[in-house]
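Retro notes (design track)

What went well: tokenization of the new backbones is finally stable.
What didn't: we kept losing track of which sequence belonged to which structure.
Fix going forward: every design gets posted as structure first, then sequence, in one message. First example under the new rule, 105 residues:
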């Protein structure tokens, strides 16, 4: 796999608003040791509802790569996102599935 090309397409998708691409950029930067840049990508992705990014920020906080304020900001952004998408129909659909992969909360 051509990592440079993959990163280029992740960047294009992230600029277009794709939160999974933004998460992947965070992973790429984190593996390269660029924790500050990775954190920025994760925070943007969390604001778009990418819950795996929230889990990564939690790990960053746990290991000293993110501050308490950064972690709190991520939690607030995710709560705002959940508030924006909340609906009775969505809650009923999520409750119908026992698998965690479907749940948005």
């Amino acid at each position: 796999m051509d990592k440079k090309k993959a990163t280029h397409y992740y960047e294009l998708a992230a600029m277009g608003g794709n939160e999974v691409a933004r998460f992947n950029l965070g992973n790429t930067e984190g593996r390269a040791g660029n924790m500050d840049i990775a954190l920025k990508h994760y925070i943007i992705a969390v604001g778009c509802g990418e819950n795996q990014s929230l889990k990564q920020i939690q790990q960053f906080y746990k290991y000293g790569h993110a501050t308490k304020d950064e972690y709190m900001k991520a939690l607030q952004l995710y709560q705002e996102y959940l508030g924006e998408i909340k609906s009775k129909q969505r809650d009923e659909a999520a409750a119908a599935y026992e698998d965690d992969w479907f749940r948005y909360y």
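Added context from the reviewer: The mean pLDDT is 90.
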